[in-house]
Amino acid sequence: MRLTAAAVGILGGLSFGNERIIMSELDILPGHLIRRVQQISVSLFAARMAEAGLDLTSVQFAALATLRDHPGLDQQTLAGLIAYDRVTIGGVIDRLVQKNFVVREVNPTDRRAKILMLGAEGADILDRARPWVGRVQDDIVALLSKEERETFVALLSKMTSAGNARSRAPLRGGKPHRPEDS
User: Fold this and answer.
1) Per-residue pLDDT for the chain (182 aa), expressed as one digit of tens each?
2) Range of 116's domain?
3) Phi and psi (nearest 5°) for 77?
4) Is 30 exposed, middle or buried (0-12, 13-18, 19+ CB in 10 A)?
5) How far is residue 130's CA from residue 2's CA, in Å, rounded to a whole number?
6) Which of 1, 9, 63, 77 has the fewest C-beta atoms lying within 10 Å of its C-beta?
7) Domain with 112 in it: what CATH number?
8) Are residues 176 and 110 in contact, defined by beta-carbon separation less than 8 angstroms?
9) How many domains does one find in the chain?
10) Contact in structure between 105 and 67 (CB atoms under 8 Å)
11) For residues 89 and 97, is the Cβ–Cβ distance under 8 A?
């Protein structure tokens, strides 16, 4: 597949004069590039957490931060607030409970339901992780200029907002639902 340098911009490949040869069709597919950026993001997050001596994934961080902001959520609502699959979030919560980062309690108003609370160890690791998570964000966009970073984030925000309903795990905003509100 041949594209002009202007169409390709800064993509890799072989350059011949003012034309750049793309090594693969994948090099220009947005879905493939987004998947690659996700892989890079996860790798950078894992490396920074290892550097900090913290046993925490990006999804676990999102869950802990959300529980700090919204204590007493049920598992389904938490999944919606972090745009995570409702089935898969169970394993994430199980691991957080095992690490004593999250406490699972019986809902006082509905004994059949469970609510999630950030535990003391969860609050501690969240505090220790925050500066490292900030570094990860800088790492992700390190090769972009300030203007490119702003554009990149603006475009990602636009795409995630516009495409949210198409997601297998859409972000469910608004007021968090707590079982006692039912």
Assistant:
1) 344 444 455 555 555 556 655 567 777 888 898 999 999 999 999 999 999 999 999 999 999 999 999 999 999 899 999 999 888 999 999 999 999 999 999 888 888 888 999 999 999 999 999 999 999 999 999 999 999 999 999 999 998 888 778 876 777 875 444 444 44
2) 54-181
3) -65, -40
4) exposed
5) 44
6) 9
7) 1.10.10.10
8) no
9) 1
10) no
11) no
Residues 6+ apart with CB under 8 A from 90: 75
Residue matched to tokens 């998570």:
133
Question: What are the C-alpha distances in Å from 107 to residues 80, 96, 172?
Answer: 19, 19, 22
Residue 116 lies in a domain: yes
Distance CA 49, CA 55 (A): 7
Exposed e or buried b for every residue in 31-65, given b needs 16+ CB within 10 A?
A: eeeeeeeeeeeeebbeebbeebebebebbbbbbbb
In a domain, 91, yes or no: yes
- Report the C-alpha dihedral over residues 39, 42, 46, 47, rounded to 10 degrees: 60
Tell me the pTM. Answer: 0.78
